[in-house]
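Troubleshooting entry. The earlier prediction with betaine aldehyde gave an output that would not parse, so I re-checked the input for stray whitespace and re-submitted. Clean input:
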Amino acid sequence: MSELRTLRNYVNGEFVDAADGRTLDVIDPTTGEVYATSPLSGPADVDAAMASAAVAFPLWRDSTPSVRQKLLLKIADAVEARADEIVDTECRNTGKPRSLTLSEEIGPMVDQIRFFAGAARLLEGKAAGEYMDGMTSIVRREPVGVCAQVAPWNYPMMMAVWKFAPAIAAGNAVVLKPSDTTPASTLLLAEIIGGVLKELELPAGVFNVICGDRETGRLMVEHRTPAMASITGSVRAGIQVAESASKDVKRVHLELGGKAPVVVFEDADIAEAVEGISVAGFFNAGQDCTAATRVLVHESIHDDFVTALAKAAADTKTGGVDEEDVLYGPLNNANQLKQVAGFIERLPAHAKVEAGGHRVGEVGYFYAPTVVSGLNQDDEIIQNEVFGPVITVQKFTDEDQAVDYANGVEFALASSVWTKDHARAMRMSRRLDFGCVWINTHIPLVAEMPHGGFKKSGYGKDLSSYGFEDYTRVKHVMTAI
Ligand SMILES: NC(=O)c1ccc[n+]([C@@H]2O[C@H](COP(=O)([O-])OP(=O)(O)OC[C@H]3O[C@@H](n4cnc5c(N)ncnc54)[C@H](O)[C@@H]3O)[C@@H](O)[C@H]2O)c1
Ligand SMILES: C[N+](C)(C)CC=O
């Protein structure tokens, strides 16, 4: 067995252990074996990281947009240059297929960092002017302060980018906590970002990473230093973060769970829909807040659709990091495997498992591509986030019922409509109560467009100029003239 790696926090430009030496095991989900340890950070570590960010913040706040852009562009170049190493690290820690991680994550991440590098120089505000006789008003857009940022395990490195890039572009300093199950790639990003900060002689404390669990996250959010708390994670965690932040009225940015409806009308191109939906439902083992997880199909094509989707599931391959033609790897951790299996074990008698419905192998946390039909709107598996390679299929009779079913959950992050009827697609995009509506596609994202939900999926946007503005505050300056 190879030697255990020791991961360390990254604070003020240095890798350091937790002050009291406590650690957590880091597990390779492909094998279920411990391959590293990471710090279980406590109050002293949170204090140190916050102090580092607090010192850096005024210096970074006063930097010009041009300097912020230069930093981010250099980080993007460095990430691109070390892509293979980053992918190796991410794949060891998540079990994702190597080739897909390279093509579907590194490219977009680099592009997203470059997008925010550009955004740093394009902040918009209202025109300065005389809105009252004898007075001139100006709007200043300023960074918010130190940001406490908490990331999930499903896209560890990409979610880190979505957090630090807009925050740093806007002039904030960051303390970021990766999930306890996936700290490795975020710490490699810290090494890269720290190297660029050093090269440009910029304050080391602009970017800090501390590892730990929920309690570490709570300590960060409740710490007196940050002015803003941002989390990507479950609804439960989001509610707790909002509660913690409310104690001293910190700004909160919440990207939480999803339960995306996928509405397929009778005039859709069925073959195209089945292919797009199966990839968007099973990609990353369905551990995606926008996954195409909850299919609603018009009754006239329901049976044919289910047969085709079950075949697509049977043709979908899960397997190891370097296996060929694999769409997805293991679930992220033993708890997640238990959670996904639990939903299938508890299915009501009226449900029918059309494909999969079982674990694959006994080593690691692999689960088969699964399709379940015959479900009712109030079934547990329809109302709750499975976050696994499971697609459910329900029948609808008309547009109104499709809208009722689609909107009839507590989540409201993403949705899609499959139809050739343009007017219907436009009607549906107005009526669907989700932060994103895709038409005849599902899952693509671009840096320029906002990502974020409504209802229990949270508030605040990632990516885009909206996401950038969330990391700024607006000040009115009025002067007598
Ligand atoms: N909306 C999005 O953009 C998006 C993206 C990815 C994942 N998610 C959601 O995240 C969930 C899966 O991720 P997860 O299991 O890591 O979520 P999780 O809620 O268990 O944890 C997310 C992060 O929050 C931390 N955390 C948990 N409780 C906390 C608390 N009380 N205070 C501070 N930090 C706390 C965790 O340590 C982890 O780093 C799914 O529900 C998924 O839909 C949403
Ligand atoms: C944000 N996204 C869609 C990349 C992953 C959500 O889980």
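This one parsed fine. The pocket of betaine aldehyde (ligand 2) is lined by residues 154-155, 158, 288-290, 451 (CB under 6 Å).
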